[in-house]
Amino acid sequence: MLTLFLQTQPQGSSSMMLIMMGVMFVGFYFLMIRPQMRKQKQEKNFQENLKVGTRVVLTSGLHGRIAQVQDDGFVIETLSGKLKFEKAAISREMTETRFGDKAKAADKTADKKETETEEKK
Questions:
Q1: DSSP letter at 72?
Q2: CA-to-CA distance for 106 and 55, rounded, in angstroms?
């Protein structure tokens, strides 16, 4: 049976097919897998670097300010009260789109206020 299979294919087509499969795999890696891994890494770094007082937008669309940072999540302060959410619920893209540089400026002013109160003590 193997001889029948080999006779039906012209010489060299199997090596060409292997090369094409390799090129397709490399293409998929650079076009799909690698950008997805980079995006996940950025999202994880964003969630790990959040501090108390940072304004955020959750994946559900809820806007708030981080009141507490806990091991398993965040306590978000909204106009209606404080709610606890998982770290994965905070969206980097929506937060940057909504607040952009304002969120970074708010972080700097919050840090300034903290250092000033520490100096007064």
A1: S
A2: 8
> Of 65, 60, 95, which is closest to residue 81 (Cα–Cα)?
65
Q: Does the model's pTM come out above 0.85?
A: no
51 in Cβ contact with 103 (< 8 Å) = no
- The string of pLDDT tens digits covering residues 1-32 is 556 555 555 556 788 888 999 999 999 999 99
Which position has the higher pLDDT, 117 or 45? 45
Give dist(CA 46, CA 69) in Å, integer.
14
Largest CA distance in the chain: 89
CB 14 within 8 A of CB 6: no
* Residues 77/53, Cβ–Cβ less than 8 Å: no
At which residue do the structure tokens 């404080």 appear? 82
